[in-house]
Amino acid sequence: MSPIDLVILALVIAVVALCVRSLARSGGSCSSCASKDSCAVHLSGSGECPAAKRMLERADEAADRASR
Question: How many C-beta neighbours within 10 Å does residue 52 have?
């Protein structure tokens, strides 16, 4: 391998390591939810996620409309 190949390989490994680190530190299933700061389920740590529940209801409605 040439030196440039080693540099590129090192950069790819570093980027993958940073991505894995970011995912590990992101903080669970609510980490990307826009409502997490005001969500009682997120604050208490128990219950059903209302955002996910609404999303699934809308997906079911859309699937029902598409199947007609």
Answer: 13
**Residue 61 structure tokens:** 């409605």
Position 31, amino acid: S
Express each pLDDT in 40-53 by its tens digit: 777 777 777 877 78
Torsion sign over Cα 39, 44, 45, 49? negative
CB 41 within 8 A of CB 50: yes
Q: Looking at 2-49, list the stretches that DSSP marks H as alpha helix, in order from N- to C-terminal side.
A: 3-25, 40-44
Gap between the Cα atoms of 56 and 48, Å rounded: 12
**Residue 38, token pair as written in the block:** 């005001």
